Amino acid sequence: MTRVNICGIEFKNPVIAASGTFGFGREFEEYFPIEKIGGICTKGLTLNKRDGNRGIRIYETPSGIMNSIGLQNPGVRGFIDEELPFLEKKDTVILANLGGSTLDDYLQGIELLNNTSVDFIELNISCPNVKEGGMAFGIKCNTALEVVKETKKVSKKPMIVKLSPNAENIKEMAYTCVEAGADGLSLVNTFNALAIDIYKRRPIFNNITAGLSGPCIKPIALRMVYEVNQVVDVPIIGIGGIMTAEDAIEFIMAGATAIQVGSSNFIKPNISMDIIKGIEEFMEKQGVKSLKEIRGII
Ligand SMILES: Cc1cc2nc3c(=O)[nH]c(=O)nc-3n(C[C@H](O)[C@H](O)[C@H](O)COP(=O)(O)O)c2cc1C
Description:
TIM Barrel, eight-stranded parallel barrel, four-stranded antiparallel sheet, binds flavin mononucleotide, cytoplasm, FMN, EC 1.3.-.-
């Protein structure tokens, strides 16, 4: 009864591991059978391998974390050769999160992913930590329009566009991406934020700013999902500070078809299992037969 369908692809439940917080799934096998999760979104891939940023990469804040990983990843080819064979044996939906610094990077990445078993491309136009992450595309509508339109032309996979909460206007951005051909939207990525080491008298992170995530962003992310749901008709995947089944259900009631669990994987690696179980219990107690009944109900 927890099944949801996005672009004709069935998820056994609406819980997806968020990009960059679940690697390629291997490390989590120690904690729970990862095929129990509805879907797995890969670490952000770039055309070429990246070692990521130097210096402090993760920093804890009250009710959240800041990160500046810098898209460390094996590159699209490395993913296809080394990681995908493991993931594709699992009975779960695979979303390949793809970043890029130029349109051409995105197009080449998509061409490579077209011939694989990944179910979706999650187009990352929102990584704040590196130029290559694509956030430059996700702030202004006109640049987002171009990258979504051109990538959609070559993609053989359904394309979910991941929005940045740092966009100038989230509703306009969402509408623009859908007009450009996005089959679905996921939101949000991390918020641009700053932390300072007062004794060293300089920023904690080498890149000065970093991305804030975790429970502290949840109410803002929820408001954004609600607002975006007012202006688009495509499926929405809600992301931001989800730690419990109640959080997940709030996102569904705000309009999300599915949700992603990010930073809370670092607190409890099998937290998704608790969230799935909690959703099932809620549905049973409340007499909800399908999540469709409560989607966007507010
Ligand atoms: C350590 C870390 C690495 C991340 N890496 C990526 C990434 O590679 N691509 C991406 O689209 N989002 C990335 N994100 C953003 C998450 O997928 C998610 O959108 C964000 O953290 C908000 O959700 P949360 O509050 O549940 O963590 C990363 C987040 C964290 C904390």
